[in-house]
Every structure is written in C-alpha cells, then in structure tokens.
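Illustration: Riboflavin synthase.
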Amino acid sequence: MFTGLIEHVGKVSSIVTDAAGCTLRIADSAPILGDCNIGDSIAVNGACLTVVEFSKDEQGGWFTVWLANETLDRTDLGELKVGDGVNLERAMGGHGRFGGHFVQAHVDGTATIVERIPDGDSLRLTFQFPEPTPERPSLLPFVITKGYIAVDGASLTITGVNDAERTFSLMLIKHTQEKITLSKKPIGAKVNVEVEMVGKYIQKSVVAALGGGDDSNGLRGLIEKVVEDVLKKRGL
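Result:
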C-alpha cells in the first residue's frame, strides 16, 4: 500500500527490452534506498514494482526493476527514455503519519495531457481518457470533482470533470510542481492513472445487488435490464 506522496524523483539510467518485458535501472535514488532490500516494492510513476537489484552508492544510488508486458501495456512506462525523471515512493511503513490517500500502485490506465494553463504560481492541467473498450472500460465513473486520483503516483485533488469530453482537471501548487515530474510533461504526454479503490468496491456491490454477474455491460445496462424485467412482469 502507498500514500501517493512522492518521496523522490529518480532518473532512468538503463532500459533493456526483450520479448518477455523490460528491465529498468533507476539512478539518483539514494534518498529512498537507505532501508532497501531485494524484493521491496517501490512505486515508479505510480506502478508498484519489485526491486531485483540495487546499490546505495553507485550512480547516486540505483535500483533495478522488471516490467512484464502487462505492465508495459497498461502504463506509460514503456515510453520512458534514458534520462527521464520518474516519481518514486516506497511502500507505506506502519510507523509514520499518513497523508495523501490509500493508493495500491496498481495502475488502472493512462490519460493524455490536453491542456496546461498557468494560474499565478499554480498550474492547471487537463487530462483526457482514451475511448473506452470492452477490455478497458471507462474510468470516468470513478472520477468525481473534489475526489482523489493518483497521477503518475502522486495523490492529487480533482478540480473538474467533463464526462462528455472524457476529461478531468487538476491544479498543482508551486510546491507540488517542484516535487514531482508531472509539471514538466508537455501537452500530448501520457500519464499513469489510478482511481480510488472505494469506488470500484461500490460499483461491484451495486452490480451484485442488481443481479449482474459481472460489469461487462456497465451499470447503465444492468439498470435498463432491471427496468425491462419489472415492466415485463407488469405486462407493460
């Protein structure tokens, strides 16, 4: 479990890709490696990855993670280049104060930056989700104004949602801009998105209560089916 509070920005120093996936080495990471062990979980741009090798001293401290093809397909990590900065967060400890919101670091999908508007010292960003597919349903039902969302692993507050345009907006204060990579990404760049898990549980519970075995048709389809069944029983 993670909090969505980015601890440090590391730098991609090596990328090795083969048919099975990709191996990333993240350098300049010494501040988060003091208590590191092989097998630990570190969220890289919001994706929970397992440390398979590390050094606390070389290259400003580095660690290596392996990405399966599923991870490459669901996140933007396959588009990283050597030299790119990445947001890093260690898994939660049980001894510290909690901030942000509960984040699993299991990326739900990606969105694209479609607007950047400076607002004094702050920066307003708008993101667009891709067209939904049966394999990747829309994430919009879980995105609400003033709710939380994790973008590239950073816990942020949603300032606006436009369902018709499949967009949501955020505002980054100056402090946040300096602590994460998101403020440096241009229009057209992809970001990793994780929506709140509570919304997923609520949707699953509602689907089950309506008698749906799964959510392949979405809640709208299930509600329509219930209404049709009621009308049919009444002969209407």
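Reading the tokens back as a structure: The first helix runs from residue 69 to 74.
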